[in-house]
Design goal:
Oligomer: heterodimer
Radius of gyration of chain B: 19 Å
Order of helices and strands of chain B: HHHHHHH
Largest sheet of chain A: none
Order of helices and strands of chain A: HHHHHHH
Shape of chain B: globular
Largest interface: A-B, 106 and 114 residues
Number of domains of chain A: 2
Distance between the termini of chain A: 44 Å
Radius of gyration of chain A: 20 Å
Shape of chain A: globular
Amino acid sequence: MELLWLFLIFLKIGFFTIGGGMAMLPLMQEELTARGLMTLTETVDMVAISQMTPGPFAVNAATFAGMKLYGVWGAAAATLGVVTPSVVVTLIVARFFAAHYKRPAVSDTMSAVRPVVMGLILAAALGIGYESLFPSGAGGLDLPVLLLACVGLALLLTVKKLSPILLITVCGVFGAVFLRG
Amino acid sequence: MTEENNSRPGIKVYLNIFSTMFVVGLFTFGGGLSMLPQMKRVFVEKRRWITEEEIIDIFAVSQSLPGVIASNTAVMVGHRIAGVPGGLVSALGVVLPSFLVLLPVTLFYRAFIDNPVMLGVLRGIRAAVTALLLYTVWGLRKGSLRGVADLLLCGVAAVLVLLLGVNPVWVILGGLLFGAGRAVVRARKGGAD
């Protein structure tokens, strides 16, 4: 019974937020703390862990909350809940999108959206870049990270078909050895 | 099965979508857009199942829909390649790594928070993600940044999101409205000729 309840809470969180994981956070925190499921400190830990672990933030947070509350089945219920609206809504939209994608009006419209998405990727790059280069605010530049990012970019520009996975792995290992906090 | 595919995709296609999205889920740090480099590499460059333009359009739509952006994107891409089952398999692939990683981590999470080695790993990974995203913009510039108007749109979008903190959804919707308006004007001009 409480599993169904948990599923429904996360279904609501997944359905009523646009803009991804970080946009879900306020609603998620409110639902979990106001119902007395988690303390504020626990939700702070949830955010920290969800950002440190790989994968979508919302799924990480849902799995964390479910696991903490009711174990593996709780994790499954919360994760299923947060993902279900996304899957259902997107499948409907995807069918519609596929049916109309080839129309000239649609492709003409999308040609204006593509530069906007490029802007979003650029913003994401600069946002993550700023966060990692200035971890303690505008004052302190993290020089080793800047050098690592520059080396990474140089490698990507020179080595043909360098795998993103390989680069992330190598930089992660490098960080574990040389960039310890 | 679906209108856009002439023949039913084989089991190998589903397996490839699943394994690719599993790897994407396992190596995504820092928001839905950081899925792009690996997805582009496999689906666009290696398999040639979709074009560069299509994958950008898919990201535009996925960001504007409710719910988890990563699974929205996974469903859109999977559906485009192999219909409804493709979308489901793709979503499962991108979600499963998170789930499997978080189960044990939740039990021992105190050991992870403030762990100097973990923080070092994350510092290294963030440097890589920054480089990858910048490189992706650079690699996509030919197809998606044609002319001054496109550069302007790109710049305005970046400033709105990065400096003014506008939710990307509104920025994309703005782009859609602008594009639709431009399409209407162009169609009228075309009709008048």
